[in-house]
Amino acid sequence: MIAALRRVRSVVSIAVLAGAAASAPPRAEVGMAVPDEAKGPDRGTGGYMWSITDDPEPFNGSWLCVLPPDQRRHLQLNCDGAKRGDGPPSMLRVPVSGLTAVAWSRRRTGGDYDVVISVFRSGAWTAPTVVAGSSEAELDPFLVAEPDGAVHLLYWVDAGAESYVVERKAPADLSGWSEPFPISEPGGQASRPAGAIVGDALLVSYERGYPGSVPGGTDVMLAEVHTGTVDRAVVATVAGASALWPRVHAERGHLWVDWIASAAPAGYPGTMAWSVRDAKGGFSTPSLVAFTSEVVRDFHVRGRIRAIVLDHIAW
To answer: What predicted TM-score, i.e. pTM, was given to this entire model?
Structure first.
């Protein structure tokens, strides 16, 4: 079962979320394939997606039953994504409109990627629409919504010697997207963004390799975006590391960033780090904890870090 719950690495199948309601916004999605009972054992599989939320305990009541068992429908999306080599999905239930949207990087013929989005409308997924497509690779989209329903799409562009993070914005009905707005500074190697909303600000975490940082190191960055302006700060610098996948979180007046500080060559065990922003805008010395698997890292460890930050629970 644990193997089946590994975090989705390509969009294989996603369950219909129509009618879903959670007590907190989803922070992760988990997918798995199970036998299709209607066809009998070993005669077919169905794709399922669940969300894990920021409820007090990540697994306590957070597995969403989106519809009663006799009414559930599981409509697959992007079934050939794994074969093609697509990137992992970002899933969002949009406030106000109630739409469910999924964005991912779809691999093009030739090897580069476009950011595409599909929306669940009128009982079906729409055909994926290219939101960001060019001769360069657009990667690792992340969706985040404001309370009024406005949706921000974050992703990074791999332009070879340079890579950078950008943001696009759409209204709650997802009827159209703005032109890309730069989040990271020019001339660096910025990647893997994630976002959160605090008041009227969009907060974006990302990682950056840049001249002047520790040789061979990677900066964990946090950008605070107001209309037309971006303020950037270095949260921490990790020597000799890459693919940190930093994630900004904001809840109950607390703001923190966590990231993958290290991983063994085979992937595990590794170390998770986090840092909390104080009242003056500075960041605490990173705290560290080991993880033994991807599931432990993404769900148990990140959930426990949240409890430590919000409730001052000892590790």
So the answer is: 0.78
Furthest-apart CA atoms within the chain: distance in Å: 60
- Helix (H), strand (E) at residue 303: helix 302-311
Q: How does DSSP classify residue 283? A: B
Distance CA 61, CA 107 (A): 35
Residue entry with tokens 């599981």: 74
- The answer to whether 145 and 94 have CB atoms below 8 angstroms apart is yes
Instruction: Assess contact for 50 and 63: CB atoms under 8 A.
Output: yes
Q: Which residue type sits at 186?
A: P
State pLDDT tens for residues 278-294: 989 999 999 998 888 88
Q: What is the rounded CA–CA span in Å between residue 283 and residue 233?
A: 10
Beta bridge partners of 224: 203, 231
Could you list the beta-strand ranges (E) of the chain: 26-35, 45-53, 90-93, 100-107, 113-121, 124-125, 129-132, 137-145, 151-158, 163-170, 181-182, 189-198, 201-209, 218-226, 229-238, 247-251, 254-263, 270-276, 287-291
Look up residue 305 and give its DSSP letter. H
Encode pLDDT of 221-233 as tens digits.
999 999 889 999 9
Give the CA distances from residue 125 to residues 22, 69, 141, 219, in Å, rounded to whole numbers and listed in that order. Answer: 21, 21, 18, 38
On whether the CB atoms of residues 288 and 261 are closer than 8 A, the answer is yes
